[in-house]
Amino acid sequence: MGSVLVALSGGVDSSVGAYLLKEKGLEVSGISFVFYDTAGPNESLQRAKETAEILNIDYTVLDLRDRFNETVIRPFFEAYRKGITPNPCVWCNRLMKFKALIEEADRRGMHFISTGHYAIVRDGQLYKGIDTRKDQSYALYRLSDEQLQRMILPLGTYRKGEIRSIAEQLGLPTSKAPESQDVCFLQGKGYYSKIKDYSEGLILDIETRKRLGTHKGFYHYTMGQRKRLGISGQKALYVVDIDPDTNTVYVGDANLVMKDTIKVDDLNWQVEQSNTFEATVKIRSTMRDEPATVNLTGDNKAIVHFQQPQWAPAPGQSAVFYKENKVIGGGIIAR
After folding, report:
1. Given 1.10.10.10, 2.30.30.280, 2.60.40.420, 3.40.605.10, which CATH number is that of 198-255?
2. 164 phi and psi, to 5 degrees?
3. Cα–Cα distance, 311 to 309 (Å, whole number)
4. Phi and psi (nearest 5°) for 169?
5. Are 10 and 46 in contact (CB under 8 A)?
6. Active site residue 89
7. Regarding the domain delimited by 258-333, which CATH topology (the fold level of the hierarchy) does it fall under?
8. Which residues, 6 or more positions from 70, have their beta carbon under 8 angstroms from its beta carbon?
9. Per-residue pLDDT tens digits for 123-170
10. Whole-model pTM over 0.85
11. Does the pLDDT of residue 189 top 80, yes or no?
12. What would the 3-class secondary structure string for the chain be?
């Protein structure tokens, strides 16, 4: 039936994915990418190796630390220094993980590639996975046509509980592996703990321009944030704007964080649309997609009008457009 190169992360999802592909009769090879240094022994690599042995599949490791640092880690911290909230998983998927998979598959003369993402690819089109709590189509919306045409995502029609159950039945070492971190290279630490250069600035009330406190680097904050402000008042205050040019963080009431209109740049299409169209739009990986009207404004940009105001759209994050369960495109939320 063909051969497929599977990215084995050392987690339960990619491990069971490799098993499911092998059960379908595909010739499966596993590969792990080393993207960053770990504090101690790389337990994920050890689990991936043991899994490959249990499944009796070929397994290799590819060191991409330098490339990952330049492509993902450095831009991640540079984005915070510009006062925007980056989406590292979105860029890693297109520019690192799937690109490296295809490069390695081509080198081996293999056509198909696979990962343990909870989403569905059908006829080269991307759809939500059936497990709404685990669906990862949001993080895959920037994949290219070639990447989608060559991709097999076996977990899209399963729920997480089913995948864990299969791993336990197989006795895979990944069956009790911890859930992967949202930003893997931070290894459970706050991004702000790794930014050492900063200059203090003002925290101002956005309506009165009254000084409420002092911050130790605006990149400690993102839209809608309440923690670590170090200020108190009669009402709850949230970050409503960040001005990197003046080194100022603006705060205000919760209602000021709600937005019914956002600008979106750097659009990437799975399915071309007319200049104005209806869709549901997701502005955060953990939220639901909400009904909206999307107006294309030229120069690969759009304005999104939501039917209901949304909580804290953050510049730098992605806005992904859906028609029912199908991903049709998306872009980067602008300031």
Report:
1. 2.30.30.280
2. -60, -40
3. 7
4. -65, -35
5. yes
6. no
7. Elongation Factor Tu (Ef-tu); domain 3 (2.40.30)
8. none
9. 999 999 999 999 999 999 999 999 999 999 999 999 999 999 999 999
10. yes
11. no
12. CCEEEEECCCCHHHHHHHHHHHHCCCEEEEEEEECCCCCCCCHHHHHHHHHHHHHCCEEEEEECHHHHHHHHHHHHHHHHHCCCCCCHHHHHHHHHHHHHHHHHHHHHCCCEEECCCCEEEECCEEEECCCCCCCCHHHHCCCCHHHHHCEECHHHHCCHHHHHHHHHHHCCHHHHCCCCCCCHHHCCCCHHHHCCCCCCEEEEECCCCCEEEEECCHHHCCCCCCCCCCCCCCCCCEEEEEECCCCEEEEECHHHCEEEEEEEEEEEECCCCCCEEEEEEECCCCCCCEEEEEEEEECCEEEEEEEEEEECCCCCCEEEEEECCEEEEEEEECC
- CA 55, distance to chain mean position in Å, is 29
Percent residues over pLDDT 90 in the chain: 78
- Active-site hit among 62, 95, 184, 254: 184
Residue 168 CA to residue 52 CA, distance in Å, equals 15
- 164-177 tens-digit pLDDT: 999 999 999 977 77
Residue tagged active-site, from 7, 12, 73, 92: 92
**What fold, for 3-186?**
Rossmann fold (3.40.50)
The residue behind tokens 């499966």 is 28
